[in-house]
Amino acid sequence: MSTQEDIAVSYDVSNEFFALWLDRxxxxxxxxxxxxxxxxxAQVNKLRYFHDGARVDPGKRVxxxxxxxxxxxxxxxxxxxxxxxxxxxxxxxxxxxxxxKQIPGVKVECVSYKDYQPERPFDAAISIGxxxxxxxxxxxxxxKHIAIYRDYFxxxxxxxxxxxxxxxxxxIGDRVPRNPTDLREIAHAxxxxxxxxxxxxxEAIIASTNPYWEILEVKTRREHYEKTAAEWLxxxxxxxxxxxxxxxxxxxxxxxxxxxxxxxFAKGYQSLVQMLLRRVD
Length: 281
Ligand SMILES: C[S@@+](CC[C@H](N)C(=O)[O-])C[C@H]1O[C@@H](n2cnc3c(N)ncnc32)[C@H](O)[C@@H]1O
Hints:
The protein is α/β, with parallel strands linked by helices. It has helices at about 5-10, 15-20, 40-55, 70-80, 90-100, 135-140, 145-160, 180-195, 200-210, 220-240, 240-245, 250-265, and strands at about 60-65, 85-90, 105-110, 120-130, 160-175, 215-220, 270-280.
């Protein structure tokens, strides 16, 4: 699992820095493009997909595992009328940002899923872009990742009521790069921007849901992440002067990382999966 120090490298850079190139709601995950949608609309489409897919309604108690800056819980509270929402994140900066918003019905905790104990069970769970932090590259190389993923699925199962749905989104590893330049750029993004994290393979996620969750829907959305990352890169570049002035070398680092993301999704080294799971009771 990524440690709190790892998470600080990835997410505690500065909330203002991320606000310059993410969408207005600050989703730090793949959007869902339909037709000529821009990034703002495509991020709402993604949030709506999980609202519908996890069978959320205003009366349900909903958990967001790895809630980022709160885009999903804020959407569910303000746009969909959900009155009982909890988000957990391991980032202190994200936790503080959500707390400061004082969103009615929203509770946020700065805690790892490994230490989390809900007061009462939830009726639905959603986790967007957090699965990549569950196993480290070292654990995956040692073949321990499936057991670690299964333990995660067991925990989410134990926090939910019978019949609950779980909406999950994760980057997945697809074709293995052979080209040394591509390998180097992907390694930079993995080890410099997201230390302690690794993209799972789809078959590893599928193998580890058993016996806790039944898989009802699996969608891969590789092109959608290529588009999302390209839009983040375009926005980052449009703020180059300000970012260089305020954060120095961080500009180069993030430009390189986002360009590597666009390349990795375009060439099929990485893809994106959205899954709808139902509790096995
Ligand atoms: C790529 S961000 C995605 C954030 C958000 N879901 C979104 O779509 O914008 C990954 C999130 O997972 C959280 N996270 C990583 N490891 C975690 C852990 N062990 N327990 C709880 N949250 C964790 C991070 O703090 C961060 O909020």
